[in-house]
Amino acid sequence: MLTQLYVKDTAVTDDGIKAVAATCPLLTKLDVRYTDVTDDGIKAVAATCPLLTKLDVRFSTVTDDGVKAVAAACPGLSLAKSDDDSERGEEGDSEGN
User: Fold this and answer.
1) Which CATH number characterizes residue 19's domain?
2) Closest by Cα among 95, 96, 50 to 77
3) pTM, whole model, 2 decimals?
């Protein structure tokens, strides 16, 4: 089953992310940088993917509300990168680069 999804700089939308969330409850890593994914899609991930540990939403339309929803629903979340995240994680991407 899918556990990591990197859709950086693709045409993925909330519908696509919702479909992944509904069918991949074991998802641990998600990178939606430079996409049109919004809080709506990320909140679907939060509701169905409690094992998420890494999330990168920089340069997307996801707001702090979406990131907070994931943080509240995913107790193992250790890294969440957003545009407002100036003090941590800016030097690398979610693949560890």
Assistant:
1) 3.80.10.10
2) 50
3) 0.83
